[in-house]
């Protein structure tokens, strides 16, 4: 779990937590967010941000997608590099065998 709250006197009052729950072997991780947010200009400011597509829900969805990509990319790259190095080693071994 990661939790936070804004400091007194900040521009925007926020508090929240992110919970990570393993879902099982090869099923990933469930991520749950609980958040309190008092936007600038109150409910009117939140409504305007939503209309402009810059509301909290849109921002959270975008940020979660980026977070997911950052976590999964190293795993994907490592797996791809391992696969490519095995194929390269097999190709080199086959080439050496053909020379013999």
Describe this entry's structure for a reader.
With 100 residues, the chain is α+β, with helices and mostly antiparallel strands. It has two domains: 1-38, no CATH class; 53-100. It is built from two helices and three strands, in the order βββαα. It has helices at 42-51, 56-99, and strands at residues 2-5, 13-22, 29-38. A hairpin with a 6-residue loop joins β2 and β3. The longest helix has 44 residues, at 56-99. The radius of gyration is 23 Å and the shape is elongated.
State the distance separating the first and last CA atoms: 59 Å
Find the structural class using helix and strand composition. alpha+beta
Beta-strand proportion: 15-25%
Order of helices and strands: EEEHH
Averaged pLDDT: 78
The major β-sheet equals:
3 strands, antiparallel
Radius of gyration: 23 Å
Strand order of the largest sheet: 1-2-3
Assign an overall shape.
elongated
Count of individual domains: 2
> How many helix segments?
2
> What's the helical proportion of residues?
40-55%
Question: Tally of extended strands?
Answer: 3
Point out poorly predicted stretches. none
Concise description?
The chain has 100 residues and is an alpha+beta fold.
SSE topology:
Blueprint: E1 2-5, E2 13-22, E3 29-38, H1 42-51, H2 56-99
Antiparallel strand pairs: 1-2, 2-3
């Amino acid at each position: 779990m990661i939790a936070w709250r804004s400091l007194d006197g900040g521009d925007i009052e926020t508090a929240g937590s992110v919970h990570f729950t393993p879902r099982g072997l090869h099923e990933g991780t469930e991520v749950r967010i609980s958040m309190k947010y008092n936007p600038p200009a109150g409910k009117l400011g939140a409504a305007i941000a939503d209309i402009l597509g810059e509301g909290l829900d849109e921002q959270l969805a975008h940020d979660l997608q980026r977070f997911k990509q950052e976590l999964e990319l190293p795993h994907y790259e490592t797996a791809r590099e391992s696969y490519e190095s095995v194929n390269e080693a097999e190709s080199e071994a086959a080439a050496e065998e053909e020379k013999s």
